[in-house]
């Protein structure tokens, strides 16, 4: 990714690198001059796993953070308006590329990490995530107005393991869920969305690693606005981990089932609303997943 190009185009290339459930890429963009509109694509919401579109909004929030970081790294000030129009619920954000700014080295490091961040589902080594990295991850979530609770005590981790296994059992027995999963688990190289077999991991084992660091990202409320913010927090946490050489994978199953989601909230006694469960550690390189190119999901307004 070169930051010498048009900042808006660079920002769109960054946006589409965001993570999304089953790599569904539930977004589209509208550009008018220096203005980028970020829209939810309702046809790409996972109807079974994510009936309310909560995870799709997290993914779009992650895309918004990528836009912000890419603009800053390109020397522009991002001005963000979340949910700008009540009458158009899919219009999730507008970001303007405004006046010049000198990016900090940290802005540049986070923006560069967008291209090489991966979900890494493989087993991690026994090496523990050091305290300073944990603290940096917690701060990253706080910076975006969300909360990252590290599942600390080993008893707590076992309890979360029970919830995860229960969620996996329910989803395994849910034929509609399995059908949706199959639709998005593409054969390698055949399409530019979905999760290829090459990105699959160790499977539903728990714990994968001897000393997993597991954390729950929560938001203070569960409004659409809070979910968009949580998506930005999620992406800042993921990019911060990437810059520290730490691999991450998602363990979303328990938060996709309402009763278990409430149990996760009680378990971490964090504010309110768990949005994702993440596993951190030191892994071996994971392959990149494909994306629909930015130009395929962007409409430009042409002024005659
Ligand atoms: C809200 C959300 C929930 C996700 N849940 C899971 C999950 O439960 N299991 C999993 O293996 N990956 C999960 N993912 C990761 C996606 O599958 C991944 O982002 C996508 O395949 C693109 O790959 P990448 O992250 O390596 O770019 C989730 C991603 C998001 C944004």
From TrEMBL:
A Pfam family recorded for this sequence: Nitroreductase
Domain Nitroreductase: 114-282
Gene3D superfamilies: NADH Oxidase (3.40.109.10)
Protein name in UniProt: Nitroreductase domain-containing protein
């Amino acid at each position: 990714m070169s930051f010498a190009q048009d900042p808006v185009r660079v920002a769109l290339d960054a946006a589409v690198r965001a993570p999304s459930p089953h790599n569904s890429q539930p977004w589209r963009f509208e550009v008018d001059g220096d203005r980028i509109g970020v829209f939810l694509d309702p046809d790409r919401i996972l109807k079974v796993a994510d009936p309310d579109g909560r995870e799709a909004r997290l993914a779009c929030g992650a895309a918004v953070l990528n836009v912000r970081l890419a603009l800053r790294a390109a020397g522009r000030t991002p001005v963000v308006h979340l949910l700008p129009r009540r009458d158009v619920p899919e219009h999730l954000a507008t970001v303007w590329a405004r006046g010049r700014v000198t990016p900090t080295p940290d802005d540049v490091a986070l923006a560069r990490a967008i291209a090489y961040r991966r979900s890494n589902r493989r087993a991690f080594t026994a090496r523990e995530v050091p305290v300073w990295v944990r603290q940096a991850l917690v701060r990253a979530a706080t910076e975006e107005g969300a909360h990252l609770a590290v599942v600390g005590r080993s008893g707590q981790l076992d309890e979360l393991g029970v919830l995860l296994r229960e969620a996996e059992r329910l989803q395994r027995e849910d034929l509609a869920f399995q059908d949706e999963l199959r639709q998005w688990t593409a054969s390698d190289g055949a399409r530019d969305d979905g999760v290829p077999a090459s990105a699959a991991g160790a499977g539903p084992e728990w714990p994968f690693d001897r000393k997993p660091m597991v954390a729950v990202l929560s938001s203070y409320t569960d409004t659409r606005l809070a979910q968009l913010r949580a998506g930005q927090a999620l992406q800042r946490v993921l990019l911060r981990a990437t810059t520290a050489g730490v691999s991450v994978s998602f363990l979303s199953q328990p938060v996709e089932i309402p009763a278990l989601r409430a149990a996760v909230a009680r378990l971490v006694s964090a504010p309110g609303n768990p949005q994702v469960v993440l596993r951190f550690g030191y892994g071996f390189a994971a392959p990149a997943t494909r994306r629909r190119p930015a130009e395929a999901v962007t409409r430009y307004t042409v002024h005659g």
